[in-house]
Amino acid sequence: MSGSSNKRAPTTATQRLKQDYLRIKKDPVPYICAEPIPSNILEWQVSLKNLEFPFKPPSIYMITPNGRFKCNTRLCLSITDFHPDTWNPAWSVSTILTGLLSFMVEKGPTLGSIETSDYTKRQLAAQSSAFNLKDKVFCELFPDLVEEIKEKQRAQEELSTRTQALPLPDVIPDGEVHQNGMPLLNGHAVLQAANHQGLQQANRNHGLLGGALANLFVIVGFAAFAYTVKYVLRSIAQE
């Protein structure tokens, strides 16, 4: 019984391998080529092609200035090709994007990262929309996002135009606050009133200073004249 089983085993294996070979030819395994030895179907030769995603981790580059990572530089993250030993082929693109987002909000240093202040990051974030609109590929891939950015820009421009067109009121709304008998004015009117008062004060100060100098010159001149007369009289007396 055992002898007959041993004779049937190779036949069973051969039939199964022939079926598997036909199945592989019809539906090949990605990145793998496999062929049995013609003289012995029990021995196979397998060739692995260049493995790509999801069998190999991706490279990640930043294009838009962001203050966290350098632009156009491969980033050293646990989800990139810098760490193939930690890569899991079961990870999807969503997993990669979620991981990238977590690295964006962290501050830990890594190859390709930069250190900037929170203020700089906010400034770059505010400028990122205008920067991306200059990227032709970005505009082609994200038309809805481009339209949203343009709508926000138009709204900001309209708000800025309206703000500049608003007239300044002549007086403070309550109309009851006064200083030196004059109503306090808004905007440039305050400056004009202040400048007018300043000019008046400057003129008064200039007049007082001029009068004091004139009096000083008179006193000095009179003293010099008296000294001269005294000197002449003394000279005559000595003669």
TrEMBL record:
Source organism, top-level taxon: Eukaryota
Keywords: Membrane, Transmembrane, Transmembrane helix
SMART domains membership: UBCc
Record has ATP-binding as a keyword: no
Domain (UBC core): residue spans on this chain: 1-144
Residue ranges crossing the lipid bilayer per the database entry: 208-229
Cited InterPro entries: Ub_conjugating_enzyme, UBC, UBQ-conjugating_enzyme/RWD
SUPFAM superfamilies cross-referenced by the UniProt entry: UBC-like (SSF54495)
UniProt keyword Zinc-finger present: no
Name this protein carries in UniProt: Ubiquitin-conjugating enzyme E2, J2 (UBC6 homolog, yeast)
Gene name as annotated: ube2j2
